[in-house]
Amino acid sequence: MQALTVLVIFIVAVALMYKKILNTLVGLPLLALSVSVVAGLPLNEILTTVISQGALRLHSPMIIIIFGATLAEIVKRSGMVESLIRNTAEYYGDRLYVITFLLFLITTLLFTVLGGLGAIVMVGSILFPILLSLGISKLGSACIFLLGLSLGGTFNLVNWSLYMEVLGLSQSDVLKYVLCFFPLALLISIVFILVELRRQSGASFLLQISKPSLKKGPGVWNIVTPVIPVFLVM
């Protein structure tokens, strides 16, 4: 009965946070307290173990999330996302394979730092019209975007903190997994893109963007910003 009650409380709390009825900063502590009460923990143990020690256990992921979110905001505000995608499209708009792979790699690079629904919408709103105008199907464009998102997410330090805290892994364990998973996922992504482009070979591949309209984007140091913290951690 306790297990069922805990499950119901968890589902209700997640639903309220997902619907934004309950703020996450409030919802998670309330969830922890509710589960503790249902489990029958005495008050002194709830105060010392759950509240005091529980808050201290979050210091590592909280610091990673703060710095990760700050870096993501810098990347957004610098204009690097729009500049990389649009200028790549304008330089290589008449070369289907080149532009598709470059856009895929740029998406991967961006999501080593970016995260959350807002970033996904921002990058997708720029990327999808370009991929569709190349003659790639809606489903194919979505898959290319999701592959880049997932591949970049393997090096996202905020995701690492989640794996380390929830699964009880060390940073070296996560890094070993990433280094094994990344080449395999990259190979699968490349094969998928080649097959998808081959299947779409009958479509019009010319991108209707005038090349003289290139915009001045951020400097080269801004462009390599996302990869710097990853290499520092590694």
Return the average pLDDT rounded to an integer: 75
- Tell me the total number of β-strands: 0
Order of helices and strands: HHHHHHHHHHHH
- How many domain modules? 2
- Please bin the fraction of helical residues: over 70%
Largest sheet: none
Secondary structural class? mainly alpha
Q: Assign an overall shape.
A: elongated
Poorly predicted segments: 203-215
Strand content: under 5%
Span of the ends, CA to CA: 45 Å
Q: Which value, in Å, is the CA radius of gyration? A: 22 Å
What does this structure look like?
- By secondary structure, the chain is mainly alpha-helical.
- It folds into two domains: 2-57, no CATH class; 61-233, no CATH class.
- It is 76% helix and 0% strand.
- It is elongated.
- The N and C termini lie far apart (45 Å).
- Residues 203-215 have low confidence and may be disordered.
Topology:
Blueprint: H1 2-18, H2 24-39, H3 43-57, H4 59-77, H5 80-91, H6 96-110, H7 117-133, H8 138-153, H9 157-167, H10 171-199, H11 220-223, H12 227-233
Helix pairs in contact: 1-2, 2-3, 4-9, 5-6, 5-7, 6-8, 6-10, 7-8, 8-10
